[in-house]
Amino acid sequence: MTPAQTQPEVRIDPAEPTRARLLGNWTLSCAMDVGKQLQRIPEGAQTLDASGIGRIDSAGVLALLRHANRRNIPLENLLFRQDHQALVSSIEDVVDDRPKKKRDLGFLAALGRLGYQVQDNGREIMALVSFTGENLTKLLRIIHEPKRLRITSTVHHMEQVGLDALPLVALLSYLVGAVIAFLGSTILRDFGAEIYVVELVSIAFLREFGVLLTAIVLAGRTASAFTAQIGAMKSREEVDAIRTLGLDPIDLLVIPRLIALLVTLPMLTFVAMMAGLAGGITVGAFDLGIPPQQYIARLHDTIQLKHMLVGLVKAPVFAMVIGLIGCLEGLQVEGTAQSVGERTTSSVVQCISLVIILDAFAALWFMQVGW
Q: For position 76, which CATH number holds?
């Protein structure tokens, strides 16, 4: 080989413009020349014939592989000599293991990250809407085909979602009811109107706090459990096995959980309402000098049934939100333990946020219609 032939060189045969022949030595000592020669390769060249290369090292192989990646050239279109194949195979495994760039903290970078987040949230919303439609369709199908309903699974989830959560919901609601009564009495005592604590606690719990506290507790407790359970099945390819057996994962995994939430969340909401009222009665009896009989009589005379109905009518909506988001995030797990953790966190955040947003809109709507 002459000295001129030791330099990296790219030749394009006019009769075969899609094939670039590589000659010379493609080593680290010729790195600058290697870069210049790669830039000379036309866009239409889809085959890199490296069989004419004399000497090549890891730097040369890495440059060729990255050039092929940038130009979307398939790896099978890179033709190396047989004695170079071992080196090429070892470099292919680490071709993308470059250190990540440092995060850009500038305004344009922040604006770009905001745009990506908006786009990602838009995709999540569309996925949730689509998933909601699919589940409503299959819930209606169960009416015509009752044998599709998994009774045992549904009862099992009702126990997990409702019965196991009952002590926590009742305790938290009781304590919050007592706190609201304490805070209300602190202000009303200055006006000699401690008796109005009855209306304050009752309306707050029957309309808002009963259903909202229950939904938030289940969003943190149940939605995360649904995501983790289905996500673990997805990572172990059990969901794929269900499809292989000809079964529908929605019927098997999602519908029983949805029905369990739709049944138990209104019941837990009623328990939370009663526990909150009990907290108010306790504070009235021990701190405000209002006997329980007088408290209950005042409650009977001043509170209308519509306040309880306003709270209860929101429970099925919140149940659908918690169940759908928890199951959807579980089905979106990508198969790694990290993905399970990320989706579980995402499901809890989405459920709590959406429950509070829907509750705020519902409060405004009921106010406008006079309820």
A: 3.30.750.24
